[in-house]
Design a protein that fits this description.
365 residues, mainly alpha, Farnesyl Diphosphate Synthase, two-stranded parallel sheet, 16 helices, globular, disordered N terminus
């Protein structure tokens, strides 16, 4: 069930080219939106996006580009904004139709990162200081609040005839995002073992809300602003949510085994913070000596030093936590593909979305 576009591409672009094209389309309106903020939160927003240094000095080469990964001075890969643009194109509209939605999604994503970094105590992101570390906690909260309000204003004042429905999608996603973040924080106080331990199915539900909600919203906004029928919007939103859970699974792998040059954070960072991520929970749920040794290590009253962190990472892998997490990511990507196959979509844009899927799971570790 595919919707034929008027012109088919002679060659399928790479994932990096797709992301770069979408960033280039969205960047002018994103910059214009940031420019409407008060100069101080605007400066912090630009710093968070990688456009400037502290005190507003522009980062050389901080414009959009076609590089293969996240580098200092980039605003990240732009997966969420790309999904908004591509879902508009997938239902037969020009990508420009959904740029206001892509800007809103990027603003909300940046807001969530500013506040998450405060709650998690993270001092580094994308190989740079986090906003709270560079400017202080209060200013970072203020900048996040400004981005939240700006996102809603951007959608509401877009002039798109479907902007009211788009705002409702965004509001629902924000409620889910907060629910997921609340559960993630509450997991920290729960034990590693016993009847009150976090179970893998609880973690999936948390990831669906915390990460899946915004990717689902990104897809829904693109289709909604393009005027797609409600059933198509719902299917694309479902695809986005499953993509988000897959994305979170890979983030969990990067949080333990990621290359610091790619993640911008120390190796074994999530283990160091004793975060209850999917690889650890999956490993603990298995029988065998590796899981028992891992349990003893994690429940020890002594904080894990670098040597113990290396042992813990090896035990998680030995117990199958790493392979189970990759399987989880691929399972959700298969659901995304099934969703894309179930509704009529423009061939080129649907092909672009499919091209992104393996790229998102194969991020370097």
């Amino acid at each position: 069930m595919t919707m034929q576009t008027t012109t088919d591409r002679t060659a399928q672009p790479t994932a990096q080219q797709i992301l770069a094209r979408c960033r280039e389309l969205v960047r002018p309106q994103l910059a214009a939106a940031i420019g409407r903020l008060h100069p101080w939160p605007g400066e912090m927003a630009a710093f968070s996006l990688g456009w400037s240094e502290v005190n507003g000095r522009p980062v050389p080469g901080s414009g959009t580009g076609s590089g293969s990964g996240t580098v200092p001075g980039s605003g990240g890969k732009g997966v969420r904004q790309a999904l908004t643009v591509l879902c508009a194109e997938a239902v037969g509209a020009p990508g420009e139709t959904a740029v206001a939605g892509a800007v809103a999604v990027e603003l909300i994503h940046t807001f969530s990162l500013l506040h998450d970094d405060i709650m998690d105590g993270d001092e580094l992101r994308r190989q740079r200081e986090t906003v709270w570390k560079a400017y202080g906690t209060g200013p970072a909260v203020l900048a996040g609040d400004a981005l939240f309000a700006l996102a809603l204003e951007t959608l509401a004042e877009s002039g798109n005839p479907h902007s009211g429905e788009a705002v409702r999608h965004l509001a629902g996603a924000l409620n889910d995002l907060v629910r997921g973040q609340a559960e993630d924080l509450l997991f920290e106080s729960r034990p590693w073992t016993g009847p009150h331990a976090v179970q893998p199915h609880e973690y999936r539900s948390m990831a669906d809300d915390k990460t899946g909600s915004l990717l689902g919203c990104a897809a829904a906004l693109g289709a909604t602003l393009a005027g797609a029928p409600a059933p198509t919007v719902a299917v694309l939103a479902r695809a986005g949510r499953h993509l988000g859970v897959a994305f979170q699974a890979v983030d969990d792998l990067l949080g333990i085994w990621g290359d610091p040059e790619v993640t911008g954070k120390p190796v074994h960072n999530d283990l160091r913070q004793t975060k209850k991520t999917f690889p650890v929970l999956a490993a603990l749920a298995t029988p065998g000596p590796a899981a028992r040794r891992l349990t003893a290590l994690l429940t020890s009253p002594t904080p894990l030093d670098d040597a113990a962190l290396r042992v813990a990472a090896a035990l998680i892998e030995e117990a199958g936590g790493r392979s189970a997490t990759l399987d989880e990511a691929h399972r959700h990507l298969d659901i995304v593909r099934d969703c894309l196959d179930s509704v009529p979509l423009a061939r080129a844009a649907a092909g672009d979305i499919r091209t992104l899927l393996p790229f998102l799971v194969s991020r370097r570790m």
